[in-house]
Amino acid sequence: MRALWATLALLVALEPASGGKYSREANESPAPEAAAFRLARLNQAWEKAQRLHLSAVKLAELHSDLKIQEKDELQWKKLKAEGLDEDGEKEAKLRRNLNVILAKYGMNGKRDAPPGATNFIKDGLEEEDLLDDPRLAKLWNKAKTSGKFSEEELEKLWREFKHHKEKVREYDILLETVSRTEDSHKNMIPQEDEAEEDDDRSPFREERLHRKHSELKEKLHSISQGFERLRRVTHQGYDPSSEFQEPRVIDLWDMAKSTNFTEKELDSLREELKHFEAKVEKHLHFQKQLEISHQKLKHVEGMGDEEHLSRHQEKHTMLQEKTKDLGYKVKKHLQDISGRISRGLQHNEL
After folding, report:
1. What is the pLDDT of residues 179-196, one digit of tens each?
2. Which residues contact residue 119 at a Cβ distance below 8 angstroms, ignoring those fewer than 6 apart?
3. Any idea what the Cα angle at residue 167 is, between residues 327 and 73, rounded to 5°?
4. How far apart are the C-alpha atoms of 168 and 268, rounded to whole Å?
5. DSSP sequence for 213-236
6. 149 with 237: CB under 8 angstroms?
């Protein structure tokens, strides 16, 4: 975690000295025409990722994540200008989201992705990462040696393990954020002339912490459900009659059933999740095609045939753009569905 904060500090240090991460100079000035993003810090993250020689799939995924981050930050800037984020909750969430993105792609200082890390199944989370968690390592080794899974099913199961590990990472980052916020509030000693104002702001601080604790509770519940599912699938294999196959969709459906949605609302959500799952499968297909194209392109580059190389580069660029576009749409749709289900879970607590 210290490495993560060190990386963020480095990104801040690279920005113009006249302002911070969310300063007018750093984020409202027009970026150079060739820049991938309108925000300076996102371009720095993108340039760093390219220097790390990430695989074509990971770069396409990162591009989609950063595009969503950019859209959310630009929306936040409008809210801020209208005075609608006085307690800084939205800004804090944006910072946390960027932390998660940096950690997800190995740009948090923990370990840079090695050149050539292009295996599709392991892309985004190497197998040794699972060995950090003995419970996951034990389940994965059991699955690989059980003979219950085809190669395709093992690939699908790996995506479930990867999805679970990423949820744990997000929880750890959020937990660290909450701990720092609590420590900051405890150590805050107002001056006498500020005491009255501080008392007025106290309810806002308490409300913000309450929201963060609710989010922690929700994520922990999701992690617990996810691990139980991994344990069950590892021991029993996949149920062919299962309603959904994609890990994120299974996760969302399990969460939805925990809410107080009516049968009609659940039926409507079920249909939407089926469409979402088809969209995810299409994105996975293009990810695979992009990775194959990337390998072919490297092979053709070594042959020295300019005409052949030009055709492959054109196809590769097309696949890259399609994968980025689909990735963006998948993640925005996921964000929308997750938000609605989260509101349903929070309503249960009222």
Report:
1. 776 666 565 545 444 444
2. none
3. 55
4. 29
5. HHHHHHHHHHHHHHHHHHHHHHHH
6. yes
